[in-house]
Amino acid sequence: MSTYDALLLVSFGGPEGPEDVIPFLENVTRGRNIPRSRLEAVGEHYHLFGGVSPINQQCRDLKAAIEADFAAHGVGVPVYWGNRNWEPYLTDTVRQMKADGIRRAAAFVTSAYSGYSCCRQYLDDIDRARAEVPDAPEIDKLRIYYNHPGFVEPFIEATRAALDELPEDLRDGAHLVFSAHSVPLAQPGQELYTAELNDISALVAERAAPGHPWELVFQSRSGPPSQPWLEPDIGDHLEKLHATGVRAVVNVPVGFVSDHMEVKYDLDVEATGLAARLGLAFRRAATPGTHPRFVSMIRELFQERAAGAPDRPALGALGPRPDACRADHCRRGTA
Ligand SMILES: CC1=C(CCC(=O)O)c2cc3nc(cc4[nH]c(cc5[nH]c(cc1n2)c(C)c5CCC(=O)O)c(CCC(=O)O)c4C)C(CCC(=O)O)=C3C
Ligand SMILES: [Fe+2]
């Protein structure tokens, strides 16, 4: 039945020791207009954690969980893993797949949304890796899954759990602050990325905490100040909430698939520290990570695509994304 003989997990990559930090940051920012001062600051975030990004171990754990889930459900294909910015590099993985006789693979990317950073850039990575390997296997990227029940449900559960951790007398008045990585306003697909983020935020708010006010904010901005990026920034927003008398916040990082550095530093160190200084009760909800529902979603997406299944589960208002990204949403821009 299956038209695919492998699943390929594609991710961002991260440093695994202090000596990797600068080469990794150079890989990430090559050809991009990121100020040197920002790079040095971000390098310090990694050094706080011994120069080790959590993202690689999270990918190893996810790969192991997918393998176990595939085995338990009789899906007899191997799972490979390759990154954009660090070892195992995607090109090396594609070379290994070719050597192993893989002809056609489905790719699952650790980013759930549309737009250039989340989708097109990974498609370009796959194209580039394939171009470097003679007679490379075909690789189809699985559809955007930000609104798949397997991505949304773990966030609903995590939001409820975080709300329950707030002091009881503050819980009723708590705001939900959804957060995602900022991108330049000029980035292709930015409008769809924002629409998808609003869609899932409304859905999670309604299911997890009906009646609580919620807002979508952005984090981890990095370009020069002259360049407009998506706003508001989470820090400015927390200050504004505090100034208007809000006393408790649950932060839901819907823009991310696992608790990598953008979550561990920008939220658990920076935003959490700011909230403490303001005297704002603050809890951060967990990301899907290796949640069993998230892992089973990956199998469902793989099987759906292999079978060309017409039933494509999706929650929210926007409907399931097509298998092939529409060029006008995710194409590389010149701006
Ligand atoms: C939308 C988006 C996601 C979510 C989708 C997805 O998950 O892919 C994401 C994820 C991630 N971003 C990450 C790390 C970095 N991103 C940077 C820079 C940038 N990110 C951008 C956007 C995004 N990034 C953009 C527009 C830039 C500017 C430069 C450029 O246009 O490329 C920089 C350079 C320094 C800085 O400026 O911060 C670093 C180190 C890590 C790894 C974390 C770890 O190590 O655990 C992850 C998962
Ligand atoms: Fe990033």
From TrEMBL:
GO terms for molecular function: ferrochelatase activity; metal ion binding. GO terms for cellular component: cytoplasm. Its EC number is 4.99.1.9. Fe-coproporphyrin III binds at residues 53, 122. This is Coproporphyrin III ferrochelatase. InterPro entries: Ferrochelatase, Ferrochelatase_C, Ferrochelatase_N. Fe(2+) binds at residues 181, 262. GO terms for biological process: heme biosynthetic process. Belongs to the ferrochelatase family. Involved in coproporphyrin-dependent heme b biosynthesis. Catalyzes the insertion of ferrous iron into coproporphyrin III to form Fe-coproporphyrin III. Keywords: Cytoplasm, Heme biosynthesis, Iron, Lyase, Metal-binding, Porphyrin biosynthesis. It catalyses: Fe-coproporphyrin III + 2 H(+) = coproporphyrin III + Fe(2+). Pathway: Porphyrin-containing compound metabolism; protoheme biosynthesis. Gene3D superfamilies: 3.40.50.1400. It is found in: Cytoplasm. It is an enzyme of class 4 (lyase). It comes from Actinomadura macrotermitis.
